[in-house]
Amino acid sequence: MEHALSPATLSELRSPRPYPAVSVLTPTHRREPDNAQDPVRLRNVVAEAKKQVEADPAVTRELRADVVEQLDRAVAEVDLAHAEEGLVIFAAPGEHQVWSLARTVPERVVLSDTFLTRNLVAAQAAERPFWVLSVSADRVTLWNGGVDRVTEERRGGFPLTRSLEDPDAERKERIGDLPSTFRDERTRQFLRDADTALGEVLREHPRPLYVTGETAALSLLDEIGTVTKDAGHLPHGGLASGPPDAVWQAVRPVIAARARQSAEEVAGELESARGRKEFAAGLDEVWQSAAEGRIRLLAVEENYRATVRDDGDHLVPAASGDLDAREDIVDEIVERCLETGADVRFVPDGALGDAKGIAGVLRY
User: How remote is the C-alpha of 311 from its chain's centroid?
Assistant: First the structure.
């Protein structure tokens, strides 16, 4: 299942496909007993997708068989044992993808000529993803960090490994020329290679970076590194081989401090915007400002959700399942703001007070 959404991947997902490009969304659950319902819900929503494809007169028999097969292949790749908060399946003639999200999604099926990406975009923004590079003399591991965990990321050649045996060690020891591990030229080159490989990853997936390792390793990266030199350094060795939970526990205080700092910065920006009368609050006002491209900073409480319908001039509350109900309006706003260059920040529930879950700083 896919987790990391890069700008290039998003652009590719948004490109037109032969009809039908099918998007299937369903909420999932991390823990018991709620996760017991996930297999049934998945089976039912995929069955509904197949039903819509088979009933659509615009879909030829050949395309119908292809898309149904792609849906079956996608379902076979779903790993509900490691589910997060939402699942998105994309299927089109000749292709399929499965995305696991750390943010819930409404249950729905959409047939179009493009995939529905707004929920992926909002989940990525809410997750505040980061990278952790764990360094040792013989292994460098890249970890993909999210809301409450890290997982090993196998891309860009990671993990990098090497043998610590020096074929010339006996002669060097005899003449007193055997350097310490992190002064050895082979180690220096090994960490240069890791720095270069990481640079390629960051170009495609830019996000905050933290580096863990012994003090000597971090000092060497300060000396020879490029992208690693400017990262947040955590002097904690022994993490290059994991386990993931140990890495998460090491970086967790830093991530929590960053989240608190971000929330404080957002509160200050919003308060200042109130004074300048460049402030929007509440779903309807923020939605209209987002549609006009006026929002510079969007703040959303982490678990804020709303179901509405558009009466032509305003958004009005609606019940889930109502005709024309929009159950992911918050994700729509997040995607729209990101498309118009806004900074989108998710803050703890209750942090926005009377703004009722969502607020923005306006450009004008």
Answer: 33
Task: Tell which residue, 154, 186, 183, has the closest CA to residue 167.
Answer: 186
Query: How far separated are the first and last CA of the chain, in Å rounded?
Result: 41
Q: Which helix (H) or strand (E) holds 59?
A: none
* Burial class of residue 228 in the structure, from the number of CB atoms within 10 Å of its CB (0-12 exposed, 13-18 middle, 19+ buried): buried
Report which secondary-structure segment, H or E, holds 101.
strand 95-101
- Give burial (CB, 10 Å; 0-12/13-18/19+) of 298: buried
DSSP collapsed to 3 states, 293-335:
CCEEEEEEECCCCCCEEECCCCEEECCCCCCCCECCHHHHHHH
C-alpha span between 328 and 107 (Å, rounded): 10
How far apart CA 272 and CA 119 sit, in angstroms, is 30
Confidence at residue 229, expressed as pLDDT on a 0 to 100 scale = 84
How far is Cα 249 from Cα 168, in angstroms, rounded to an integer? 39
Q: How far apart are CA 159 and CA 140, in angstroms?
A: 6
CA-angle at 340, arms to 327 and 324, nearest 5°: 20
Cβ-based neighbours of 338, under 8 Å, separated by 6 or more: 121, 125, 344
Picking from 76, 127, 64, the residue whose alpha carbon sits closest to that of residue 101 is: 127
What would the two tokens of residue 273 be?
């915007």
Contact 109, 48 (CB under 8 A): yes
β 295-301/343-347 pair status: parallel
228 phi and psi angles, rounded to 5 deg: -75, -25
Q: What is the pLDDT of residue 180?
A: 59
| Residues 6+ away with beta carbon under 8 Å from 231 | 133, 209, 210, 211
pTM over 0.90: no
123 token code pair? 């989940």
- Tell me if residue 167 falls in helix, strand or coil: coil
49-105 per-position pLDDT tens digit: 999 999 999 999 999 999 999 999 999 999 999 899 999 999 999 999 999 998 899
